[in-house]
Amino acid sequence: MSTPDWEERLAAAWAGFDNHAGTTASIGSSATGADFRALIDTLAAELPDDSPLGPFERACAWDSTGHPDQAVPLYREALARGLDGYRGRRARIQLASSLRNIGQPEEGVKLLAPELDGPSDELDDAVRATLALCLSSLGRDREGLALVLGALAPHLPRYQRSMANYARLLVEPGN
Known about the structure:
Layout: H1 4-15, H2 17-21, H3 24-27, H4 31-45, H5 53-64, H6 68-80, H7 85-101, H8 105-112, H9 124-137, H10 141-152, H11 160-171
Helix pairs in contact: 1-4, 4-5, 5-6, 5-7, 6-7, 7-8, 7-9, 8-9, 9-10, 10-11
C-alpha cells in the first residue's frame, strides 16, 4: 500500500499544514488551502489506484481546509475500499464529524455508535466526543453529556467514580 518513505513525506506534509493553510477557521477555499490539497493529491497519486489511503488522505485535506461536503464522499470511498485499523477508525470519526457539519448528524450517530463496543485504543475519547456532538445536534444533549463525562472521568486526578456515576445517571431511565 504505502512505503515508509511515503508515510514520512505524508507526515511532513501534515506537520507543515499550518505553513500551507493557516487555521481551519480562516482558510475556507483560500489559495493556501488549495495548495495544501494539491500537495496531498500529489502524494495520493503515488498510491495504487485501488488504495484506500488516497481517498482517505484527500478527505482529510478537504476536511482540514474547511470543506466537509467534499470530504464525505472521499471518506466513504476509503471505507468502501477496505480502509481498516487505526486509519479506518479515524475515517469513521472524521466522517461522522463531517456528516454533522453538513447537517446529517443522525448518520454520524449510526456510524459511531458501534465504535463504543469495538476494540479500545487511543481514539476512544475522540469517538465519544464526536458522538456527543452528533447527539447534541439531534437535541440529545443528556446522552452527549453522559458520553463526555464518561470519557473525562478516567483522566481526573480524583472523583473518577463519582463522575462515571453521574454520567450513567444522566441516561439511566427514570433520572
